[in-house]
Amino acid sequence: MKTGLIIFGMVICVIASSAADDPALITKGEQLFLTKVCATCHQVKPDQIAPAGIAMKAPKFIGDFWGKERDVTLGFGGPVKKAMFDDAYFIESIRNPIAKIAKEAAAPMPPPPQVDDNEMKALIAYVKSLSGSKGAKGVLKDLTYKLYEGSWTKLPDFSSLTPKQSGAIADGVIDQNISKRRDGFALVFEGKLTVPKEGTFTFRLGSDDGSRLEVNGKEIISNDGIHAETEKEGSAKLPAGEHVVRVSYFEQAGGEHLGLSVRGPGIGQLQLARESVATKSASTQTGIPIEPANGEAVIYRNFIEGASPRGIGVGYPEKLNLCFDANTMQLAMLWQGSFIDGARHWSGRGTGFQPPSGFYVLKLTKEQPFAALQNAEAPWPKIKVRAENIQFRGYRLAEQRRPVFQYDVGKARVEDYSAPVAGEKPSFIRQLTITDSGSESLWYLAAADGSIVAKAGGYKIGKDLHITFPGWTGPAPLLRESAGRKELLLLVPLKEGGAKFSQQYHWDLE
Ligand code: HEC
Q1: pLDDT tier at 488 (50, 70, 90 boundaries)?
Q2: Calpha distance 105→57 (Å, rounded)
């Protein structure tokens, strides 16, 4: 083991020290980037998407990335660390993709075709040559900003508000990161764009949440309201010379983004904001992905395929997601990777149920979690429309906006909180807290499936799920045959009117 590591380290040094950046090597690397299929996942030109990389969010090799620090996780969903994008990191990314995973990605990189040391040198030379400040050029002259704080659902009338802060932006690049707050703020940018000749100029404005673009005081693009990252286009006929560009933007909660670009005669394509605007083709293919941001969970309350119409989706930054069914009070689904695509509901492209975007979707029991059974043989109540004797009471948000679902079972109040556990073998721990009960005990339906067998201190449910009850001290779980399938029940004693216990859901994919 130790020897292996040392040898691996030496290989990195040898390649790294001899990777010269001559044009022939770069050309060879460019070809290899195609033949080794890197280009199918990694986008290298702003206007050419890499189709196979979209769902995985494969990093783009665009802009200033080489020699820069990036956030990676050690193992998929593991602890976050900083890593320098250099030769060694590049080599490790290809030879041992699972070691460090770009945090922005939705899945680890699948092992690519074999790359020998000479090919590696060429690939490094090529990818390195792509890096540089090719993003925002800082072409806006006399750029200023005004920062406002507050909570809005659409762009406010800024003339009636006093900015919290204002000033000049020396590098001429529009950047929403000027706000130290990540929620509840608004920004107005104003600067001058010079165009060398007369013509029609097309602007693209992308934002999360709302934004507006005005040129010389006239609205060109309205992208207002609360929404995930959405791009809009608008054009203006402009004479040669200087034009006043004004961008208004607000962010209520969740993820935030502001991108602006312009193209037209004599200027080609210019990026005017720090963040780039997704290209048209990319946005139609990916729809409007909703993803957690800033370490906070994100909640999606539209129809989710696989749950009832009262499904509540929760995406966690650990890249683990769940859907809670507010009809039955059960966890209806768990999945890994990307959360959900909001396009169906936000862009008016139709109604209906949206499937989860990620992978390894586990569909769980559709019956209510708690019931007061007469005895251990009594059948579990069937759901008619809603769960029997159970009332949904909504949810409260705990730390990092993670929801704690609340419902009443008869006289008992239940708090149902699921915490994602990231790591090589991810899982969810569902913590159930019961209070204020007049009864002595309640039955809990941990699982119902065609196949349930005891395995490794827990139970294997169907093909892909393993469950355990960490810290459980009550009576042994009851595995019974009922209604033509297996059911796994816990009899939960309610001492002094309450109880607290946990069920852990592990993906068991072997
Ligand atoms: C099937 C899609 C796919 C292919 C093919 C692919 N990659 Fe990746 N690559 C990814 C994804 C997804 C990530 C991000 C997750 C990770 O870091 O493992 C990634 C990460 C990387 C990283 C780290 C980037 C960063 O921003 O941290 C490098 C470098 C890289 N790939 C190079 C290559 C090269 C070179 C090839 C071709 C030999 C290649 N990849 C082929 C999907 C792919």
Answers
A1: very high
A2: 5
**Does 171 sit behind a cis peptide bond, omega within 30 degrees of 0 on the bond before it?**
no
Domains of the chain, earliest start first: 2-130 (1.10.760.10), 141-285 (2.60.120.1560), 298-507 (2.70.98)
Write out pLDDT tens, residues 199-217: 999 899 999 899 999 999 9
Q: Is the pLDDT of residue 7 over 80?
A: no
The token duo for 66 is 């080489």
Buried b (16+ CB within 10 A) or exposed e, 177-196: ebbeebbebbbbbbbebebe
Choose which residue among 87, 103, 109 to substitute to test ligand 1 binding: the one with the highest number of ligand atoms within 8 A of its C-beta: 109
Query: 79 C-alpha vs ligand 1 centroid, how far in Å?
Result: 19
Residue 161: the pLDDT is: 95
Expressed in angstroms and rounded, the spacing between residue 382 Cα and the centre of ligand 1 is: 48
Question: Could you tell me which of 424, 433, 428, 446 has the C-alpha nearest to residue 490?
Answer: 446
Answer whether 189's CB lies under 8 Å from 247's CB. yes
